[in-house]
Every structure is written in structure tokens, then in C-alpha cells.
## 1
Amino acid sequence: MLLPALGFGGARPAAAQAAAKSFWFVGTNLIFAKAQNRGGETAVASDDPGLGRFLGKLGASLSYDPGQRYVIVTSGDRRTIVFTLGDARYTVAGVTQSAPFAPYQSGGSAYLSLTALAKALYVLPVEQGGATILQPQIGDLDVRTQNSVTTVTLRSALPVKFQRVSAAGDERLVVSLNAVGTSLEPQREVSGSAALHALSLQPGGSARNPTTTVAFEVSPGTAHALGASRSQNELVLAFSNKVALSGQPVPANGDYGSGGAAVAVRAPGDLSPSAPTNEYAPLPADVPGHEALPPPPLQAAAHVTSVDALPAGDALDVRVAVSGPVAYEWHRLSDNRWYVDLRNAVLDTPARDDQPRSTAVLSLRVKQISADADPVVRIALTLASPRHVDVEPAAGGFTVAVGENDDGEAQRVGAGRIASGAVISNALPIAPVTGSAGGPSDFWSKPTPAPPAPIARLAPGTNPRLIVIDPGHGGSDFGAEHNGLIEKDLTLDISKRLRTLLVARGWQVKMTRDTDVDVFAPNDSAHDELQARCDVANQAGARMFVSVHINSFTSASLNGTTTYYYKGADLALGEAIHRHLAANLKTIDRGVRKENFYVIHHTDMPAVLVETAFLSNPSDAAYLRSPAFLQQVALSIADGIGEYASNSPQVNVSPSDGL
Amino acid sequence: MKALRAVLLLALAAAIAYFLYRQILQPKRVAADTITVYYCKADGETLVPWKVTLGPARDRKSVAFYATAQALAGPVPGVEAIRFPQGTIARSVTIAGDTATVDLSKDVESQPGGSFAESGEFKALVWTLTDLPGISKVRVLIAGAALPTLPGGHLELDEPLARSNW
């Protein structure tokens, strides 16, 4: 027998602490460790872990802060329940109700009536054998008729699970809802509907395993269908004997909790994308010989066939034999470590870590630090004192020349490309970086070490031909993932295409990353990661900064292309780029918008962030799968950069300006 | 005569004490019965205001907390809106000068909607709080800590947010 525990006027003695009382909710024993007895009613504390578990299972949450008077609970279906300390009235979705007692504060917690809170969340406390069963309910029933269609909405405490009891095709519909009881009126006449006369709700099962059977009495010739529900906790049924219903037939079984979202009445065809194929011109070939940093990605890897240390008095030459052209980037750290990374290179000799016969160098290490798609060989030195180190072309490779002592204030980063003993493209003038570095263990972990602080900056536009491209996310940060697409891969793809186009047009390009890596460090903080990306542009005094991203949203319906700016100086660049994106892409034009994105806020030069399209939208995702589309994005950005540059001639700034 | 003077002095002292209590000790109150809460439509751009009736507590701190919780909950179920992740709660709301500091639970980091959703959520929260008299900026903390950005979406948090951020 079910005994609703709603009588709060009883003469039970009040005690400070409730008697050890057992609460059960959907098969779980809940312990309200801080519960108090308030005139026979259970008062639960806002910060009781047991209450947290209870609310968590319902998808609800509670906000309270001592020092103010509201306790606000949001249900799983986003109804707001507002309690006020010292006032027995509370509101549920704006409707005022009355609790057995006014919420009160004690020991930094707010105490609420469990009965009132549970009822607002469609849960009924049922006493059974000394225990209180918190029974999920069908807590609300809504019937409305519009345009000859009568819609019945049943709202449950938990995601709806049901069986259809009546046979498929029967006019009379009977459904049985699992795991929920009800204390709603068992019979309800429906007026104003030609299709539905009445419905009945019959509780069944046990206190711990309740069911509710709902029977719908209909007129002859009435059809019924499943309607679109607004949350997992709603069951919507539509009835009509006049018009055809668009929803799907009520299935034999329904489980709204498993899919994570409400069952929506949506034809499968709605989501089929219009695949963009061969809509664009073929890809232009990469332009050889004009690459800025780093090398083109599709070239065969160079092989490092030998590394020899040749002491020369106080100095040391490290001769490196390489099978073909190779791009390199060297870094000098503040603790007398120096290294050079050979991009797209494979180490044919064993890795080494030894001390050359030289007073200048304490150790020489050679190692393949990444393999697979993007192989990198690192040659690292620990110097005895600050030394000048040069990378010099030599027959069949190059020489790392450790020279005389220096003051340590020299250039700290450099890069270039060597083939057949000659430099074929030199490094960009990269600003000095004051160094700091992690310990020896993380030294090998990735091609580029942590950018240090403080950061030396060059004035924006010091390098008037330099554009920094920032492929969003990377490494441990995948960005958004939807429809089998990963943001970090797409942003890198577009960025590499953009680099090729810009270099062909005579720009210098630096990428914040050109492989699948974190720019700062794996699993770093967002701040470090984003600042590292800004530092690349700020240190180099770049003319422009373009960050490439792919958008996503919880709703698949949203699509389109957006260009973001933040600083006033960004707007003209953003508008120029967006004009070309909007003209060339078949995505929806979402315009140029202002947004406080870190990378565009904290870069010194005109900077924009392009959200190319929505991964989460099937149509946009189909575009993003097309290399022609990605090329078109890159081309549009490059065209926008060109337009901006011709409209906004570079004003020469000296490095001391604007810092 | 002496007694009369004593009574008058006492009355004056009481009046001054009452005035001080009203002006200084008692929290400033919000006069209106409703507040305006905003939500951002799924297009990420359009802000929609709606009126929410205040409960009986009208001191500034309570009203700011109330407004925050309403903005976190969003509009009634069924309205398509950019919503804060489920479970996101206000741990505290404090006001200093023209800045409200909102401490949110970690749930806000579980962004299934990415930076696009984050922007809509925070735009709605900032508009809601800056609609209250005397508040023009909103500082956001997560689990008590000041973060330079939200982890999901690159949206900057290291300076108080204002309407001019959008």
C-alpha cells in the first residue's frame, strides 16, 4: 500500500536531528547526513552530499550562497524552483506553492523541506516499513487542442521509458510508463476535442518499482502519433480524427534516456547533406622553392646518415650528413642548451648521448623525437658556457659549429633550409627569445620547447611581409569532433593550403604549428597554449595574424561561416577576408562579429579568427570533407589578406613604437 | 526640565541610529518587482529579454544571485536557446563597486557546444547582471579560481566582461 508522507501537521515531537531514517531512490539508498527534523518533516541541507546525489540522478542542480536569501534549484528539464530563507512560499516555474516550513539557515547551509523540493521535481516521498521511498512520478499532465489536433504531454521525473499496451493500429491507445508512479487525478475528461474524450492514469507495481498505465479514450476514426518532446522527461502524444498527423506511430517500446536526447519527430531524410563535390576548380600545385618555414608536407623525408663530433681546439664542429634537402629550426635555451630540429627527417644512425672531446660541450645528444607522418630528428648540445653556435652548409649536409664564448644575448631562434651543401632559403629574422626550459626529461618530448616568459616583442609590422597563421587546436587538444571530423586536423589542412598560397604570392609565413602538436606543451592550460600562439606573432613583429577554426554547436541545425575580430585594428582585415569567404563559399554567411577570443585580443597586429563552418551540421560537415572546399577557404582568406594589404599600406614602425 | 532634555537627547540619538541603520547597515534594496533576464537564441547573436518576478528577498546580493541563477537556468523548457551546460550552478555572487563577481561550478567547462555556445551563454549572463542597477561589469570565476580563458572555447575571462565585449 502506498502512503504518501504528506501529513506535516502531525504531533510527532521535533528533534534537532532526524531519527536514523532510510531513503531510497531508484534502487539507491540515499543518506542525508545533515538532515534535521523540523516539526516532523525532514529538512535537508543544501550542501548535503546525499542531496547532491539525489539531484544529480534527476539532472537537477542547486545554487545557494550564504549571505543571500535565495536557494534556487534547476530541474533536469530547466524548470526553476525558488526557495527563500524565512518564507514558506516557494515558486516552481513561477507558480507559487507553500512548503511545510520556511527554509532556514544553520551552520552555513540552507535547510529545505525535502517533501516540497521532491514534489517540485516530480518525486513523491512514500513511507514503507520505516523507510522513505522517493518515488519518481508523472508529475504533470497537459492537454491542449489546436487545429483539430489534441496533444497530451506527460512530464516525468526521469527520462521516459514506456511500452505500448494496446495493439499497433488500435484506435484506443494504452501506454505503460516504467519506473514512475503518479498521484495525479486518475480520471480526466477532455473537453473541446473531437478526437480524445478522456484519459485515465492507473498506478501499478510496487512502491519501489512503480508503473503507471495511461489509457486514452478516443472517437472512432482517430489516429495517434508520437509528438516532438522538449526534453527526455516528456512524452508527447498527438490525436486527431480530422487531419493527418505527421509524427511517427507510437512504437511498442520507447526509451528516451538511452539516446541522450528526446525523441524528435524528424524524418531521417532531414539530415541528408547536399554533398559538395567537384564544385570548385582543381587544386593548384604547390609552388616549389618559395616555401617559408617550414617545408612542404608532401616531400619525401631526408635521412640523417651520420653525425660526427670533430673537436677543433676550444671549439667543436658537429658534421651532419643528410641524404637530401632538409628544413631546420634551432633554439638556444637560457641554461646553455642548444638544439636543432630537422623537419621531415629520419635518423638512420643509432641515437646517441655522449660527451665529445671538447671543453666547449658537455654533452651531445641525437634522437628521433617524432616519427610517423611528421618525423623530426633533434641534435642537442649542452654547452659548458654561453657560446655562439652556427648552422653552416657543408658538402652532403651541414655543420653545427660551436664557436667562441659570447655574452648570451645573441639570437636565440633561427631556421632555414639546406640542400646539397647550400642554404636554399634562409630563416626569417626571428626576434630574440629569452630562454627558459623544462627539465631534461621533457626536453625530448616535443619539437619546440615551451616559449618562455618574459617575451621580447617586436612592434607589429616590423616584418611587413610576415603573416602568422594559427591552425586552431592541435596535439592533445582535438577541438571539436563531430560527424567523423576533427577540428585540429581540418584547421591544419586549411592552414597549410593558406601557407602555400601566401608564399606563392610573396608573403613570408610562420605557422604557430605545422604538425599535430600543442604549441606550448601537451595537456597544457588553455592560457599557456593560447599565449604561446600569440607570442609567435608578437615576437616576430608579424603584419597580420589569422587563426583558423571550425565551429560546432549542440544543435545540428546551425551552420555557416563567421569571421571574428576584437580590436579596432582587426575589423578591416576581418571584413576583407569575410567578403571573399562569403562570396566564394556556399555556406551560410554569418557575418563579421566581435568576440573576445584570446588569440585575437592578445596579438599586437591586426588579427582575425575564422570559423570556417560548423562540424556539427551535416551539410557543413559534407563541405568540410571536400578538399576543394578547404582549398576555397584558404584561397578566400589569401585573397582577403591581399585586398586588405593593398587597401592598408604598411606604415613603417620602429621597434620602439607601440610597445 | 532635565528629564525632558534627556528624553529629547535620547530621541535624537535614536533617530540618528535609525538613519545610520537605514543608510549604512541595511543592504541596498532593489525596488522593482521584476528583473530582466536574457537568453541568447541559437543563432548565437540575438539576445532575448524576459521578465522574471523577484522573490521576497530584495537586497542587492540576493537579487544578483537570483538573476545569476535564472540566467544559468535559461528560459522555460522548449524554448530553443543557447544554454549553460546542465548542472552549472552559481557558487557565489558578490558585488564590489560596479563589478559583480560570479563563481560558477566546474560544470560550465563541460561545453558540448564549443566556443560558439560559450559566447552566447556568457553574453546572456553579462547582459542579465548588467541590467541590475549599478552593475556594469562581470568577473567570472570557475570553482573559485580566476581563469584567463574558458577551457573549451578560447573565450577570454581574465578581465571583467562588459556589454562592450560583444
## 2
Amino acid sequence: MPSPQYPSLRCRMKISKLSIRNFKSFSETSVVFGPFTVIIGPNAAGKSNFVDVFTFLSDCAHEGFANAVSLQGGGEYIRNLRAPPGETTRISVSLDATADPAKVRFFRDGSRVIEAAALSGTYTITLSSDGCTISEEVITASCTYTLAGRDGQVSSLGEGEITLVRSADGTVGCTVTPAGLAPEPECTPLVPTRLAPDESILESPAIYPTFSPLVSRLGTFFRRIGHYDLDPRLAKRASEIPGMAELEHDGSNLALVLRTILADPEKRHRAWSLIRDLLPFIEEIRVDTIAKRSLIATVKERYTSGTAIPSFLLSDGTINLTALVVILYFEEKPVVIIEESERNIHPHLIAKLVSMMQDVASSLGRQVIVTTHHPEVVKYGGMESLLLLRRDRAGYSVISRASERAELEVFLENMGIDELYVQNLL
Amino acid sequence: MAEKPLYVLLEGPDDERFFDRIITPIFEAQGYETKVWKYACEKKLRTIKLIRIFRKAGIPYIFVRDLDRTRYARRRVQETLKSYEHAMEARMVVVVIAEIESWYLAGLGKDEAIRLGLSHTPDRTDRVTKEAFNALIPKGISRIGFMQGVLDSFDISLAKRRNRSFRYFMNWFIEDRRVDEADAGRDLP
């Protein structure tokens, strides 16, 4: 068997914390993230609204702020419907870049080259009270500074912060601490341009050239967040040959993505091993071309004596599990968000599926966030990974972490967390 | 011939992967349909009730448990019996020494180990723990992908030489067909 090669992530940042105010059903809340998170809660508790925060940020970086707002249904649906008039909506994401710091180099005192390595940072966007324009964006990067010598030697200059602030009028300013390490000539944009009211700094990283690598890195990270809500009916269909190389949100181009994976012998072997781990009766997966225009996946099962079954005749569970293996092991995403990943899957397989999610989070360094209604996901996900969402009396969505709720301990002595969840006792 | 059910009680998905690929096909060839109950995430009482049902109905079962921090397998069996209110028979308890990962590694040949990126493999795997196994996996490689790679080329004869608890399991339950005797309700020596 060839040695397995997993795609190296282009940026290995992680989300360490999320704070939101007046976003959709949330009033004000903060959540600390680990490598694997299972979001649970009753219907209409706000699970999808919570996940929408990441979609919104990804859309901001990918499609631009104005489109991101439009894709959420407009400014009035982004902000909390009960928020007092004049109150703004804010999203703040803290990122950990220790594994792969973002680096920028600039001149100081004419010829000294200083390198700043950002180990962590925060991006905050505040939307105006109508939700349609940006009041403020702040990027703060906690850095270690080193002096890069001509002979290639480096010496430490200590720690500090680089802060970029975009104001409501579209101007972008910068502060470097300690001030003695700020770039020279002065830390100002080369071109005194202003961003449009509905234009994010993520769309125009070069507005502040010296620190554009930091902004670009942030934008790339948000763009590469993978958010999936699989629809097996679409994933079963034939895919048009011209199409996205990455799996679509609903899995509709699964055949196209599988073709690329299966064309590489190492990836083919690895995909088959992982799919067989969940579906041991599958003997072969192939992708065939139909009339030179479309692709369709076919599967040979142990029970069908060598006959290949086209994907539109496969079970929804087989299609979903195949797509999940692709998402978890073959899509190059730093953060993978999967909505109700357990759909159409037999409960007995959930333990293996959850163990794959945990494997991807721990071995491959991807953050995995799933929403679920399934008690088996709750049981195998474990207390530490569980985020509970519910509505408070006023109707706002609130979040708590199961492992931090001491009152649950007495129940857990005699009952499983899954039983508490099923009875809505969490 | 109709397949007889055989219930295998395992700790979690890592044990299940090993049994699915290596052990289940052997039991299938002996006429058993293996069904797995993963007990680590279940409340103990549910597992106790299940084993009592097996015994009442004369359904064969095997309870597989890691040695963990216990020093001797026999002591671990006693601990297990006590912990599960003596629901099961001692002869149906298999203690994996040290953890299921040691069984995976036991069947990995030298050439396959090199192909998987391992610089060395221990001659005997009785002391291999989960942590030691994880430390062997090359960085950036999926643990499950690595385990599947090991199982792709798993050599049962080699594994029996390199891990005594695996040898015991294979001799007792597979070659001596002790499950058949349990199935028939006979008392074992």
C-alpha cells in the first residue's frame, strides 16, 4: 500500500473563541472552541443561526460583504429582530495561529528588517444598526518580533501587537506596539483610499500594503471554511463534467470530486479503505462518463455479483457516508462544519463516524463542528465536545458547554448524556 | 446452514475496526454471525442486563477488555467480574495485553511497517499502549487511515508470535472453538 499523503492545509489557524452580539437569534454570547465540537439543542434553538456566523464570515471573504448580507436574507435578518433600535451587530473571532504563524516583514530605521510573526489574532466586525453597512472592523495580531540580519541571523525583539482599524468612514488606520518597532517610513497606507461602506477590509487586503499578508491570511482562512448540509438526492445525481473541484455545500458534485480522488492510486486506496470501514459490503467505487457530458458514481457491492450499481439507485446512507469521507479526509479545509451529519445513517455506524471526525480533528489538525439531533452522536462525541443551545425566556438563543455544568454530574452517575438529551433534560 | 449469533462486547470503535476486519471473517467461516456491543459509552447496568439475557438464552458471547493499568490478566478478569456484578463467566472474558493497539501492531510485518512510515516496530507488542501506538504514527497521518493500513496487510501468524494475549485469544476461541462449547452450554475446564 502506498504511504498515505494527506493534503497539507494552506493555513493551519484554528478558531479559539467566538463572540457575537445581536446576530440573528443571539443577544450576546461567547464560545470557546476545541478541535471537535458537537452542537445540540431542541428545534429552533438557534443551531443553524450559530453556524451561519461562519458562513457569513466565509461569504464576506469570498463574495464580499454586500453579497454576504444578501445571502443571509438582508440586513434586517442578520441583526436580532428584538435588538433595540440603534444597537449594532458584532461578530468577533479569535484565532490561534501557533502552528503556522502569519509573518510580515517591514523596514525600520531605514535598513533594519523586522519580521513580525502573528501567533494569535482577533477579527471583529461591527455592522451598522440596519445591518447593511460596516461600522467598524478591527484586526488585532499578537506578534513576536525578530530582527532579520543581513547574514541570515535573527535576534528577538520581544512581543507586541499590530492593530488595523477600519472606521465607519472607510479609512484604515494602524497601530504597532511597542511603537519603537513600527514600520518606517510611517505606518500609513501608500494610497489614501477609503473602503466603501459595504466593503470589508477582507475584500481589499492591499489597502494597507505593509500588513496585507496578515489580512490576506485572515481572508483565506475564512474563505476556506467548509460548511456542508448534504442532500443525498442531489449527491446521487450525475454531475456535469465542468464543475467545482471542491465538494459543493449540498454534495451535488460528488461524482466529479470522486473522479479526482479515484484517479490518484494512493487516494483511491485510502478512500476505499475509509469507506469500507463504514460500509464493509462495498467492493469497488468507480466514476463513469455518460455521453461525454456527465459523470456518475457506480458501486460494486458484495451482494450484487459484480454488477455495478449507479449512484441514483444507492441508499441515501451509502451516499451520505461516501460524501462524509470525502469531506473529512479529502477536502482541504481548516474548519469543517457539517449540519446533521448523521442523516440517513444507521445508529450502529455513528460511533465509527464520530471517531473519524475526532481522528480528523486530532490527527490532521482540522477543526470539526457538527450540529446534530442524534443521541448516538451526543454519546460518542463526549461531554467535552458538547455545546448546548436553547432559547431563554425572552427568546434569545443561549449557549452553554455540557462539561461546565456541574448540576449534570448527579444525573450522569446513573444516566447517559444521550438519555438526558433525548428526554430534553440538558 | 443458518448462522448462529455471537455477541462480542468491545470497548469502542478501535476494537470494532480490528474485529470487523480480522476476527469476524474467521467466526463467519465457523458459522457465526458476529454482533458487536460497544460498552465503553454505555451505562454499566445496560451491559450487565444484556449479558444476563445472553446467559439466560444460551447465546454465546465474548467480553473483550484492555489490561489498562492492571498488572496481571487474571486480576483484570476478576476486576471485570466484580465490576459487572459477576454477570459474565470468567472463561468468556478476553484481556487484551496491553490495549487493542498492541494487537494491531502485532500483525504488522517489517516491510509493511516501512511502507507506512514507521522507523521501527517492537519485536513483542505486549507492552504497547494506546499512547505508544499513537506516538509511532507519522505526523499528519490520520490515525484511522494508519490503522486501516495496518489491517490491510495484517499477518495473523506473526501477530500470534508477537502478542501473547492475541495468541491466547486465537487458540482459545478460534482454534479450540470454545465459543461452540459455550454455545452448547457445556461447562469448560
